[in-house]
Amino acid sequence: MITGELKSKIDKLWEEFWTGGITNPLTVIEQITFLMYARLLDMNERRDEKKAERSGQSFNRRFGSHQQSARWESFRHLPAEQMYKVVKDEVFPHFKDVAGEGSLFAEFMKDAQLMIQKPTLLVKAVNMLSELPLQESDMKGDLYEYLLSKLTTAGISGQFRTPRHIIRAIVEMLDPEATHRIADPACGTGGFLATTYEYLLEKYSSEDGVITDTVTNEKGEEVEQKIYLGDLLREHRHHVDTDMFHGFDFDSTMLRIAAMNLVMHGISHPDIHYQDTLSQRFSERFPKAAKDGFDLILANPPFKGALDEEDVDPALLRIVKTKKTELLFVALIMRMLKMGGRSATIVPDGVLFGSSRAHQELRKHLVEDNQLEAVISLPSGVFKPYAGVSTAILIFTKGGETDYVWFYDVKADGRSLDDKRQEIEENDLPDLIEQFKMRDKSVALTEANDRSGKCFWVGKRDIEQNKYDLSLGRYKEHHYEPEEYEHPKEILKRLRGVEAEIDQELKVLEEML
Amino acid sequence: MSTVKARLGDIAPARPLRKTSLDPEKIVWHLNLDQVKAQSGEILEKERGPAKEAGSSTHLFDCQHVLYSKLRPYLNKVVLPDELGVATTELVPMLPDPERIDRRYLAHYLRSRRFVDWVSQQVAGAKMPRVSMKVFWEHEIPLPRLDEQKRIATILDKSDALRRKRQQAIELTDQLLRSMFLELFGDPVTNPKGWPVRELGSVTQCQLGKMLSQKSKSGQNPRKYLRNANVRWGAFDLSEVLQMDFSESERAKFSLRDGDLLVCEGGEVGRCSIWRNELEECYFQKALHRVRVQSPLTPEYLQEYFYWMSKLGGFSKSVSQVTFSHLTSEKLKRLPVPIPSPGLLAQFSEIFIKIDSQKQKLNKHSDDLKYFSDSLSSQFFQIR
User: Fold this and answer.
1) Could you tell me which residues come within 8 angstroms of residue B282 by beta carbon, excluding any fewer than 6 positions away?
2) Pick from A6, A8, A15, A4: which is nearest to A124 by CA?
3) Is B321 in contact with A471 (Cβ distance < 8 A)?
4) How many CA atoms lie within 13 A of B357 on its CB side?
5) A183, A444, B49, B236: least surrounded by Cβ within 10 Å?
6) What does the pLDDT look like over B262-272, one tens digit per residue?
7) Cα–chain-centroid distance for residue B187?
8) B340-373: per-residue pLDDT in tens?
9) pTM of the full predicted structure?
10) How far apart are CA A13 and CA A35, in angstroms?
């Protein structure tokens, strides 16, 4: 968690961009990302220089001898006009040279363009960024996430940032392991992957690996926070850094942000690629990812967006013949999973009950040839202010056959379901996680399986008979409690009583006037 | 007779209690505007909590005050608190001078129709109109002798009490009807008397109304039609009846006749009322179903049947849960309806009509009482 003071610093930085004329939140984040990157490059260079001084070993320099002026520390004190010139003509072009190193992350930064027009705005931004504690590894991720939380408009292709508390609930339910290979085929800002990493740090921290600290939040209250060092993750470090997290997206701005997000969280070489995962090129370029590649896939794929059918991978069309991206993504995820691999995917409600042939086929495949574990209905409004769609989380395991599906009805997620999304008390998510972990299939056929409750089991046969309809409303039962009335004679007696009183009162009034 | 007058600002200025005198841990009444019923100033619910939890824009009052809502004055929210509490600053804490003005007299005055009409003109702000307090405090209230004020207040209290009793009686007639229904037929969902059950579509004619479109507003053959907003429970609100075009064939298809039941398709699903030719020639829109009853079923029985289904949860299985609830015509036609014996149905209709006519009378009386109370207050408070 980051402190209230830090949040207000970021808020201020945001405002500076806004008043400086850059109002597209994506552009703001991208520009800040580039500047952060410039600072990180210099920080890492200095770290390596110090190391080299001590050990006497040389290292691959990021800045050549003629490029020293492009280092953060050397330009950050320059006067506005001069700084602007250096950043524009040296710092940004320098990103291209660094990309030659071959790191994927550096690769994303090479096309960076300075969109800031006013030298004064640049100076303000550079000063503010210099104050951010980018050297503190446990805070950087939160800091960047906070920045991302300001993304309140959807991207061009309708992508939006999945709320982090929803992601967190999903990750907790699926409980990833340090040995897993994890993917998100439409990763956006990388929320699922970053949150998974945070979760792993917590899960793989010994008692000594938890530091308790007190910080001041934005309300000025002192709150306790825990920092998880993830010390038990050390033996998996190489896997975590290089082969655990895989993300794909076809929006290069989003990708840059995702890559930065993961690096800021502490994953040194996240495997993030510019790729439309629905196209045939995906199987060609990343055969290992496109089929049987992952233990875990967490995704909130785009629900809308036009598609060229010719462009769609025929292998997916064989599973479900459709142009609808939300259906294709479910098919894609099933394909990308290893046998026995699991997924939690957010889908619009239409996927659950749509009556087209494609819808029914996909659901049949999901139920008959895979283990559909759970359907978690989310209230419409969890994606506000981006979209008001009603959605659900599908949790399934590749292969096998479904016997019973667990349904849960989330009515509240701890935020108001309007555009403001203010925190409120009602929150089903903690209960959801607990119930999911405790769910017990053996009650499916007993009285204890109360279909009018918050969660319940539905057998495959029942689902099959309903054309594989997976909407919760189809199976949820409502308790009917008949109203009781007094006997008519009793009511009549009371009515007469009231009438008598009225009569009496009228008389009294008459006398008073 | 000339009456003494006094400025509101002099005789009952805003004077909250001092908060510093209060123990912050003390549990007190927390009042906000939502908890005050419009037009009567009744308190709908009382919340309590430690005094320290009150926000900064609140003030302290007790049973000496009259709380006057300056927000949307036409809602006529004047509260006579009966204990210590904190309230939002929208409720002005007027402290009447007990030597010169009776607290209840002041409240009745502020609630009187003529004062409300006047003060509703003295507002600023379009979205959240507030009384401009400067004008309010300048307003002069007639001040008879204190004992006369008390007499007026007592009479008006009595007249208010009468109206509440009348309302209570009206509610009892509704209960009587429901109870009669239950007595004769049993709960239509659980059907304890074991009546044969049929689908609604097989024992009535169901017809969904005409779809409203741009085309139908061209002004050719405009006719009145009913929409969702016109249908209340067991009554029609005909204060605003719209028109659209109905061709000859549509007029045949969407006509209304005495005894047709009009049922809401969306919104409060199943809300319905029996058409008694309240308007001469009238049709209906797609938001409504027309259920035309065939013997031995009666519209009275069906209206109450829908009340049970809709109000008491009998529908939940038939209404689609996706997006918002609708009772499509397919679902309407498949509703299971217990069919009681013709004798009982006729008996119920007879009782229904009696109770209904009684209710009409009571409603009329209620209106009379309102008129009576307005006339009393206008007589007491000569406002120019």
Assistant:
1) B223, B224, B225, B226, B241, B256, B275
2) A15
3) yes
4) 5
5) B49
6) 999 988 889 99
7) 27
8) 999 999 999 999 999 999 999 999 999 999 899 8
9) 0.68
10) 12
Residues of A in contact with B167 (CB under 8 A): none
- Tell whether A339 is within 8 A of chain B (Cβ): no
Cβ burial, residue A116 (10 Å; 0-12/13-18/19+): buried
Residues of B with CB under 8 A from a CB of A: 151, 154-155, 158-159, 161-162, 165-166, 168-169, 172-173, 175-176, 178-180, 182-183, 187, 189-190, 308, 312-314, 316-317, 320-323
Q: How many CB atoms are closer than 10 A to CB B216?
A: 20
Secondary structure in 3-state letters for A99-110: HCCCCHHHHHHC
> What are the backbone dihedrals phi and psi of residue A299, each rounded to the nearest 5 degrees, phi first?
-155, 150
The whole-angstrom separation of Cα A288 and Cα A282 is 10
Q: What is the biggest distance separating any 2 CA atoms in chain A, rounded to whole angstroms?
A: 112
Q: 3-state SS string over B215-269?
A: HHHCCCCEEEEECHHHEECCEECCCCCEEEECCHHHHHHCCCCCCCEEEECCCCC
Instruction: Check residues A312 and A103 and name the one with the higher pLDDT.
Output: A312
Over the stretch A336-392, which tens digit does the pLDDT of each residue have?
A: 999 999 999 999 988 998 889 999 999 999 999 999 999 999 998 888 777 778 899
Contact status, residue A327 vs residue A363, Cβ threshold 8 Å: no
Query: Would you call A513 an interface residue with chain B, using a CB distance cutoff of 8 Å?
Result: yes
State the smallest CA–CA distance between residue A487 and chain B in angstroms.
6
Q: Is the ipTM of this complex over 0.90?
A: no
pLDDT of residue B321: 43
State which amino acid sits at residue A192.
F
Which structure tokens are listed for B355? Answer: 């109770």
Chain B CB contacts of A353 under 8 Å are: 322
Digit-coded pLDDT (tens) for A190-239:
999 999 999 999 999 998 888 887 777 766 677 787 888 888 988 999 99
Whose structure tokens read 């109203």? Answer: A483
Mapping DSSP to helix (H, G, I), strand (E, B) and coil, where does residue B173 land? helix
CB atoms within 10 A of CB B128: 10
In order of A420, A485, B157, B295, B315, the CA distances from A499 in angstroms are 51, 21, 18, 37, 36
A387: closest CA of chain B, how far (Å): 14
Alpha helix positions (H), A64-157 = 72-75, 80-86, 92-99, 104-109, 119-131, 137-148
Report which residue type is found at A61.
Answer: R
Q: Do A512 and B158 touch (CB under 8 A)?
A: yes
- Smallest CA–CA distance, residue A316 to chain B, in Å, is 29
Using only C-alpha atoms, what is the Rg of chain B? 27
Chain B contact present for A478, CB below 8 A: yes
Per CB-CB distance under 8 Å, the chain B contacts of A480 are 189-190, 312-314, 316
Q: How far apart are CA A193 and CA A259, in angstroms?
A: 10
Cα A302 versus chain centre, distance: 13
Q: Would you call A223 helix, strand, or coil by DSSP?
A: strand
Cβ pair B177, B304 in contact under 8 A: yes
